[in-house]
Every structure is written in C-alpha cells, then in structure tokens.
Design goal:
With about 700 residues, the chain is an alpha/beta fold. The protein is about 50% helix and about 20% strand. The chain has four domains: about 1-180, no CATH class; about 185-295, PAS domain (Beta-Lactamase, 2-Layer Sandwich), CATH 3.30.450.20; about 305-465, Alpha-Beta Plaits; about 475-704, EAL domain (TIM Barrel). It has 26 helices and 21 strands. α12 (about 350-370) packs antiparallel against α13 (about 400-410). The termini are far apart. InterPro entries: Biofilm_reg_signaling (IPR052155), EAL_dom (IPR001633), EAL_sf (IPR035919), GGDEF_dom (IPR000160), Nucleotide_cyclase (IPR029787), PAS (IPR000014), PAS-like_dom_sf (IPR035965), PAS_fold (IPR013767).
Length: about 700
Amino acid sequence: MTAPLPDGDEFSVSPDAPKRTASSASPKRKNAAPTRATLARKWAYLVTSTAYLPYTHAQIEEHFAALLDEVFAAVLSDDAEPAQATEAGARLVALRCVGPDSLRRTMEVLGKGLLHEPELRSVKSLPERVLQVLGALASGYGEALRESIQTQQEDLSRTLVTLERETRRELVLTQARFEQLFTGSATGVAVTRVDGRVQRVNPKFAELLNRPVADLIGLNLYDLVHPEDAEGLREGYRKLLEGESQRLELSRRLVTDDEEPTWAGFTGSVIRDPAGEAQQLITLVDGDTDVSLLQRQLSRQALHDPLTGLPNRQFFGTRLEKALRHADPAFGVTVFHLDLDGFSLIAGGLGQKQSDDLLKNVAAKLRVVVGGEDALVARLGGDEFGILIQNTAASPDVATVIGMINQELSEPVYLEGGSGVAVSACVGVVHRPPRDMPPTELLRVSDMTLRRAQANGYRQWALSDSALDTRERHEFSLAVSMAGAWEIGELEVNFRPLTWLADSRPAGIEARLAWNHPRHGRIGHDTCVRFADETGLIVPLGEWLIRTACEEADDRLTMVVGLTPHQAADPDLVGSVRSVLAATGLGPSRLRLGFPAGAVLADLGETVDNLHLLEEIGVDAELQDFGVAGDVVCLVDVPVRTVRIAPRLAERRTEPLAERSLRNLIETANMAGATVIADGIDSTGDAGWWQSVGAHIGAGRYFG
C-alpha cells in the first residue's frame, strides 16, 4: 500500500477516475474554513495507507477534496437519501480505494471530522445527519465494489473462454500438423514405449521394412533390426534414457519382410513428462541415400578384400572379438590360419590374372567347406586365409575340417587357357582359445602355429601349443631386440681354436658370435645366428663378424667364419669381403668362409657364383653341415677343399647306421681330397674316434 506521492510528480489521472465538475463542487468552497482542506488531506492520507493509488500526491489531494465537497453537500442538503454521498462512495471505488481497511478508515475520519466542522454546525440534528450520509456513502461504496468485482469476473470469464477456445484451436492445428508430418514424412517414424514396444509407425517406416503398418504395431523395435545390431541399438537407447547422452545417432541394418537387411540411419529421442520420467521413444529412420550408400560402399571396401569379396584381416579381427565373447562355453570357437603352398611359384608360372582367378576359386572352395557351420571365411593377406568357426555339438573335429580343406583344394581348377591347377595349404589351428583372449593375440598365436606347420613342409597342419607358444614368443622377443643389443654393445665376437687331430697343432681360429644379455645371460653363437637370420639382420651383422674376425687375425693361422644360407646367396658378399680384406690388410689365403651344403646343392641365389668368385680372389671355402649323400656332389662341382660334418649326424655316431654312414661319408670326402672337420669334440675319446674314422681337424670344448 502506498502513501500519497510528493508534490510535483507528473502522472496522468486514470480514465476510470471520476472527473471533478463545477456542478459537483459546493458553492461555498471558496469561502470554506481551512478545516475542510485539513480534513480532506487527513482522509487522503489515511485511505492511501490502505491501498495503492496510481496518482501523484497533488492529484490524490485534489480527488479527495472533491469527494469531501460532495460529502459536505450531502450533509447540507435536505434529501432523505443524499445522492451525493452515494456517488462519493462509488467514486472511492473508482479511485481504487478498495483496500481491506479503506472503508473503515473513511468511516472513522469522516465520522469524527464532520461533527466538528464549523460549516456544518447549523445543520439540524447533525449527528443523525452525518450517520445518514455515511450510511449512503457506505452503500454506494459497497454497490460499486460489487459491480466492480462482477465486472472483473465477467472479464476473466470471457478471457478464459477465449483462451480455451484459442488453445483448443491451436491443439487441433498442432495435431493436424503432426499428423501431416507423421504420415507424409519421407523419413520413417516409430513411436514406442520405453521398452521398445511399437505403438505407432508412419507409412514410410513400414515401407522401409516392406511390411504393412498394422503388422508392426505391438512388435519390439529391437526385433526389427539385424540380430548383430540389436544390442548396439539397445545400448544406445539405454544411455539416452539414463541421461548419459542427449541424442541417439547411429546406423543399423533393418530386416525387411524378405529377410534382406538394409542399412538405415537411426535418430532417437525421449519424450518425458513434467517430472522428467521417460514416457515414450521417438525413432526417426532414414533409408540409405546416395551419400550413405557411398559411405557404406567405402566402408565395405575398407573391411573386405576387393578381389575375393571376403572380409579382410580387420573385419576378421572384429568378428573374432564378438565370437569369443558370445561363444558357447561348452564348445568355444576354432580359428584356422591357412597359407597356400608354393603360391609364388604358381603365380610366377600362371601370371597375374590366372593367379587372381585361382585365389577367387580358393575363396569359393573354403566357403563350401564351412557352408554348414556358423563360420566366417576371410582373406588375411596375399595367399593367407582365415576361417572362424563357432562350434556346436554337431561341428566336425579339427582333423575332419583339415581333411575337408585339403580335399576341396586338391580338386584341379581349370583356368583361362586350359591349365588345370590344384593347390595345397599349411594350416595353423587354434582350438577353443580362452574367451578373454584379445583378437590380436589370437591372430598372433595362429600365425606362429602356421609357421610351425610350414617348417615341416607342404600340406602340413599344427595345433597351437601353449608351452611352445610361450617359448617361441620368448625367442621372437629376443630376436627382434637383437639389433638394439648390437648397437649398444651387448654382442661380441669370440674365437675358438681348430686343432689337427693327429698332433694337436693349431689348424686355425673360428670367429663366433655371443650375446651378453642383461637378463638372460650369455646366448651362444648358433642361437645368435638363427635370430639374426630370422629377422634379416644377418647380412649386416655377418659383415661385421667377418670384419671383426679379419681385424683380429694374423698371418700364421687361418680365420674361419661360417655363413648362413642368406649370407651365402647375397650378391654383395664378394664385394663386401674384398672391402674387408682391403681395409684390414689380411691376406685372402688366411680367410676361409663356411658355406651351408644345402644352399650350395640347391644353388640358392648367388651361392655357387660367390664360391667361384671367392676362389678367384684367393679366399678358401668350407662346406659346412656336410651330412647327406647328395652333398658329395658339391665336392665335384664347386671348388671346396674342406668339409665340416653336420652336427645332427655327428651327435648320433654311436648308432650303428649313423656310424656307418659317417665312415662312408668321410671316406668319400678323403677320396675327393677334402680336409674333414668334426665339431662337438668334448673329450679325448671323442678326438680319438674321429681321427680313427678319417677326420683331420677337430673343434669343441676339448680344445678350448
């Protein structure tokens, strides 16, 4: 409630406020005693303390002065029912003097003030007249207040009716617009319960599924997508319902009425009540547009082999993860890792087009082999294929599947040009791996198992073995770290003597590698050479070995350095040896290089040419790993004057057949004029035996 505002405020009077006119003012106003003005101000003050009046201080006092004039006129009149007082009460309401205490304060101030006004002393029976006038004022006030309230109620009713009418109209229009959008939308729309149960779908949604609208009501949304995609869609809506995400956008495959999956984009949202509780799910489904079709095509190209159409290694790895997670605990899964035997030879003979046709034919045959199983065939790269089988009680065992693969591949394929080609494969098998094994680890194990099978020849297969796998993984980790070990100085060159068995005179020195590993201790020459050969490090490391040996050699004894098949076949071998000899100043005759007999017999790469070229520059050659009848041919065909018995044959010399073979082999070498070296001599007895069968030089722990 607001008191009269200070003088000087400029506000216009409300149009509802009664206007003061000349006729309503008392003719005696100008001559009235000052007490009338005082009473008017007091009345204004008390009433404005009970209600807010939107006028200035001056305007309020002017209005109440006019009201008091009306009251004075009523008291002075002879009317039994003074109309001026009734009008004054109504004008109080019009001025908004309608506070809870406005009328009471009016009665109090006028009841006391009128009785003491000098102007009214001449009125006969003044107290009774004042009561009569105040009663008329209260009556006019009450009637005006009732009419005002009624008017306000009628206005409110009309407003509410109008608002309701407009709201209903907007609701009808909104519903009509929604129905138009819902039914005419080019996007499929499904309205479901929060559990996915379908309540409404539009025609486009039904069209995408190639099913009538009525058939879809009551089904579950998650049953309308491909089984492999349902869990992802369900997880997306779970996050949406629990507030972990604000919007669902993903692509999934819809299963149409003809069970042909079609890719579609899903956009989901949640309808919640005012309390925030989820009530419905709204799902918008877009069929593949040209852009999304292109995206799918690119995605397929990224996950499939373009030649055979099979899934590629990336796809295979992804499917492995899912298969392991959902595998039947009683049967698990089986992974077959295949590599075609001798495919590079086949490709070289047939040409690119026929080789590609052969790979496509192999892919088709592998699909036939596992056609009755829940299986996936993939091309892992080159001529390698992978098969994943999710086993059941009816699945064939591993050996049966291997037999089916070999039988199917052995059937000749007639390619363009009439060539009938059959292939075979080596297979690494991982049967029922642990469900928590990472796909990358599973593929690594299958690859190692395949390499183990290939080591046994063509058309071989091997089953993964955890103990072997652990050992091989340990060795592989060492092999790949060998280059770093060489760089930081962990590798060194050691020398061991070669001794004439007849009189124990020095016959030469042999350079050998050793690795002082900080965790695994000392790793010997044979293991170091094998690791280097497997990782491709052997050529630079072998050159370093030859250089270091030549730096340590002198002109008194021959320095011997053994080569691996890869070193022996290296076209840069002779040039490298020339450079070493020139840099160290060692005479060529003081260096002897050991060539593996198998590499010489097979004429691997530049092996035989290297032998002849080294002879031309004065470097001797030694035939190492000499141990089969075919190796004898090398003594005739190549310039070799020294042979070293194969360790695998020497270790079995106590067996009658092996002993006889050794005697014959050494006798033949002696007939060819070759010097025979025996390795692994650990005792005087060993040295005596080898001398007795015709060996000339010995090496081993017995000689240091």
